[in-house]
Amino acid sequence: MPGAHLPGAPAHQEPADPLRIKSEVDALLAELGPRPVAGPAENTEAGADITRRARILEQAHDVLVDALATVDKI
Fold first, then answer.
1. Could you give the CA distance from residue 69 to residue 1 in angstroms, rounded to a whole number?
2. How many CB atoms lie within 10 A of CB 66?
3. Which H or E run includes 30?
4. Is the whole model's pTM more than 0.90, yes or no?
5. Most buried of 14, 16, 43, 65 (most Cβ within 10 A)?
6. Alpha carbon of 73 to those of 2, 34, 52: distances in Å?
7. What is the DSSP string of 42-61?
8. What CA–CA distance (Å, rounded) separates 55 from 65?
9. DSSP tag of 69
């Protein structure tokens, strides 16, 4: 079964719902918002923002990987 190699993958997953997946990814990407313009004095804030943005993108990636794991390969 596709995705069966993923850790913690259940034996019988329900098929991916494209609308649910799109809404989850859209919601995560909306959290990114516009990228703030940082000056040299704001390096700590910029580093925290990069970390937050990376976490959000990783979550969106996980949603897409989980969806792909439920799709039958032809």
1. 9
2. 16
3. helix 18-32
4. no
5. 16
6. 7, 36, 33
7. GHHHHHHHHHHHHHHHHHHH
8. 15
9. H
Locate 66 and state its tokens. 């989980």
Alpha-carbon gap, residue 38 to 41, rounded angstroms? 8
pLDDT in tens, 11-20: 555 678 899 9
Q: Indicate the angle between helix axes 18-32 and 43-69, nearest 10 degrees.
A: 170
Give residue 67's identity as a one-letter amino acid code.
Answer: A
Domain boundaries, the chain: 18-72
Is there a contact between 13 and 69 (Cβ–Cβ < 8 Å)?
yes
Q: Is residue 22 over pLDDT 50? A: yes
Predicted confidence (pLDDT) per residue in 45-64, tens digit: 777 888 899 999 999 999 99
